[in-house]
Amino acid sequence: MSITIRDVQEHELDAILAMNNAAGSGILPMNQAQIRYFWQNADYFRVAETDDCLVGFLIAMTRDADYESSNFRWFKDHYGAFVYVDRIVIAKGQRSAGIGRLFYADVQSFAEVRAPALVAEVFMEESTHPALLFHGSFGFHEVGQHQMPDSPLRAAMLYKEMCSYPFVQATYGSQLPAVPWLQGRRRPAADARRATGT
């Protein structure tokens, strides 16, 4: 089975929303406005595709995102620069195919040239213990816990140091080489601002 990880396309948002909302209790549900927000603002929004079918997605934001998630704000209150994994969803029936590992290798490649840390949270329920093990196997460690406001959900806040970042920063600063694999996602919101001159 061949798996492709690539940037999301706008016509795929409805399918991604349905996949998210069918994922179970470990993933917060979304609505149309939220998926549209991610389409316009996420620094990293990629999908996994196999045999022309979407089988997963991962959304991540840098620290300077204008994002209201209480989990995201927890990391902003505690750390400087980072890349925050907001959610990773793998379609049912595809969860033992290694797609999550491919996504994390890809998002780490994105993060390690942009920030000193990759961060995420996992809800502390029995059903999410495999997710905690998964993140631990990638080198994440717990740096705190966060009780979401107006919710019974408590999250384990996870942190992974990006060991390559000091070298990248010392060598290139904020001016990364102009090669395709280092280019960030072309966000529609940014494209619209450029088109209007704002």
UniProtKB/TrEMBL annotation:
> By its UniProt entry, which SUPFAM superfamilies does this protein fall under?
Acyl-CoA N-acyltransferases (Nat) (SSF55729)
Please name the InterPro entries in this protein's record.
Acyl_CoA_acyltransferase, GNAT_dom, UCP028520
Q: Which residues form the N-acetyltransferase domain?
A: 3-164
Q: Name one GO molecular function term.
A: acyltransferase activity, transferring groups other than amino-acyl groups
Which superkingdom? Bacteria
Give the protein's recorded name. N-acetyltransferase domain-containing protein
Q: Which organism is it from?
A: Arenimonas maotaiensis
